[in-house]
Amino acid sequence: MPQNQNIPKKEFQYCPVCGKKLEINYIEGKNRKSCSSCGFVDYENPLPCVSIIGIKGDKIVLIKRGIQPSKGIWAPPSGFMEAGEKPEDTALRELYEETSLKGEIINLLGVYSQNTKIYGNLVIIIFLVRITAGNIKAGDDAMDAKFFDFNGIPQMKHYFYKEAIKKAIKQIKNK
Questions:
Q1: Using H for helix, E for strand and C for coil, what is the string for the chain?
Q2: 51 vs 71, more confident
Q3: Sheet with 23-27: strands ordered across
Q4: Is pTM beyond 0.90 here?
Q5: Which residues contact 108 (CB under 8 A, 6 or more apart)?
Q6: Nearest 10 degrees: CA dihedral of 18, 12, 121, 1?
């Protein structure tokens, strides 16, 4: 995730199409910023993120976050999708950037939503990934990276990580 974690989410005050000051109007069942001059509506769409539940045998890979938010907390490798990037490509890129590991996607574990102070609403796409190569090493915005036994996973901050990890372990054990 980006280094500048304390920058507030950008909000339009003026129309990006014609430059007029935006107003609050009731549109499609919600109060939304819009332009009465050209009709632009600021829909405030969510920002897509991808997370990886990386499995190797009976172990899961986690990173200790090296930046805010949640600096020092163990979490699955994750990050924002780049423009034009497929979610699956983001998953494998983030895995490599944060752990120096390579993998193959097994399946989609879930899609979740979270509202944040900094980025607004996020859509988190979580994949189950089988680790296939590499020597684990913290990289990018991670201060540490290591494998944990299924029964020794640290407490997760977000409910969607807990849920996705449970699903992943169940799938792996049932194979």
A1: CCCCCCCCCCCCCECCCCCCECEEEEECCEEEEECCCCCCEECCCCEEEEEEEEEECCEEEEEEECCCCCCCCEECCEEECCCCCCHHHHHHHHHHHHHCCEEEEEEEEEEEEEEECCCEEEEEEEEEEEEEECCCCCCCCEEEEEEEEHHHCCCCCCHHHHHHHHHHHHHHHCC
A2: 51
A3: 23-27, 30-34, 41-42
A4: no
A5: 125, 126, 127, 128
A6: 100
CATH class of the region 47-173: alpha beta
Residue 5 pLDDT more than 80?
A: no
92's tokens:
């494998």
Q: Which residue has the higher pLDDT, 45 or 86?
A: 86
Q: Could you state, in order of their start, the residue ranges of all structural domains in the chain?
A: 8-44, 47-173
pLDDT tens digits, one per residue of 96-105: 999 999 999 9
Strand 102-116 with 41-42, pairing: unpaired
Please give the span between the terminal C-alpha atoms of the chain, in angstroms, as a whole number. 33
Closest CA to 45 of 12, 69, 2, 74: 12
